[in-house]
Amino acid sequence: MQSKQHDDLLLVLATDLDGTLVGDPDALAELNSRLALRHQQVFLIYLTGRHTLSAMDLIGREALLVPDVLVADVGTIIRYRPRFRRDRAWESRFVDCWNGKKIEEIATGIPGLSPQRIRSPWRRSYHLEEEEALTLLVEALSRLAVRVVVTGRNVDVIPAVAGKGPALRYLVSCLNLPSEKVFVCGDDGNDLDMLQLNYRGVLVANSSLPPSLLPPTIYRANKPHAAGILEALHHFGLAP
Q1: What is the DSSP-derived secondary structure letter of residue 65?
Q2: What mean pLDDT is reported for the chain?
Q3: Distance between CA atoms of 10 and 30, rounded to whole angstroms?
Q4: Topology of domain 6-92+162-235, CATH
Q5: Domain segments of the chain: what residues?
Q6: What is the pLDDT of residue 8?
Q7: Which one, out of 19, 95, 99, 132, has a CA that is 20 to 30 A from the CA of 206?
Q8: What angle do CA 133, 138, 143 make, to 5 degrees?
């Protein structure tokens, strides 16, 4: 990973991609230009439900800035710039508690769940066709060390110690990032655990998450997508 002087950092921007950073091209271009002008003083972390190749495709297609860290697959895979190699120490936390085949067996027996074609070592993904299926899945998995993350009709089963929030907390600790400079941005269910870490941050206006679930450190933006991120950065006096 390319090094930046943490003492000089103005901002550690930790943001979801789809629905949060991406969605308003004009606002995204403005935010990108501001961040690029202070790139040595901004540490950029993307946290996404996408798998790595899909996230890289989005970064190229939307002309996103290249992040310092990419957290993919709902917080189960961490990759570092410049070569984006995986953090195997992070993944080693899952080895003893993960049983993908058992999860598949359980999910197969639940009507109203259809598997998604997402290949990831630490994630099993499903499409929710019936609401009752979610309750049955959570109950059936209750004895396993897993978390069930719901984003609309998408359901991800991941290790209990994984997720965007735990991954971000791990990065702040192991990279010695200044926690007072961390700013989190999200819009949906798989962002909830990082929005609840008591860092300053923003829930963009297009979100369907109830603000009551979030700590007072999270600003509810009046604008959607990147425009909401810029609005919140100005609100906290952190805009680059």
Answers
A1: P
A2: 95
A3: 18
A4: Rossmann fold (3.40.50)
A5: 6-92+162-235, 96-159
A6: 83
A7: 132
A8: 140
Residue 155's φ and ψ, nearest 5 degrees, are: -125, 125
- Residues 27-63 pLDDT 10s: 999 999 999 999 999 999 999 999 999 999 999 999 9
Question: For 152-192, what is each residue's pLDDT tens digit?
Answer: 899 999 999 999 999 999 999 999 999 999 999 999 999 99
| Helix (H), strand (E) counts: the chain | 8, 12
Radius of gyration over alpha carbons of the chain, in Å? 18
**Could you name the CATH architecture of 96-159?**
Alpha-Beta Complex (3.90)
What pLDDT shows up at residue 118?
A: 86
Average pLDDT over residues 119-128: 94
Q: Give the up-direction half-sphere exposure of residue 156: CA atoms within 13 A in the CB hemisphere.
A: 27
Q: Where are the beta strands (DSSP E) in the chain?
A: 11-15, 42-47, 69-72, 77-80, 85-86, 113-115, 124-128, 146-151, 154-159, 182-186, 200-203, 218-220
Q: How many CB atoms lie within 10 A of CB 37?
A: 11
Question: Quick one: pLDDT at residue 1?
Answer: 53
Sign of CA dihedral 12, 199, 208, 239: negative
- Which residues, at least 6 apart from 189, have a Cβ–Cβ distance to it below 8 Å? 149, 150, 151, 152, 209
Report the distance separating Cα 107 and Cα 71, nearest Å. 26
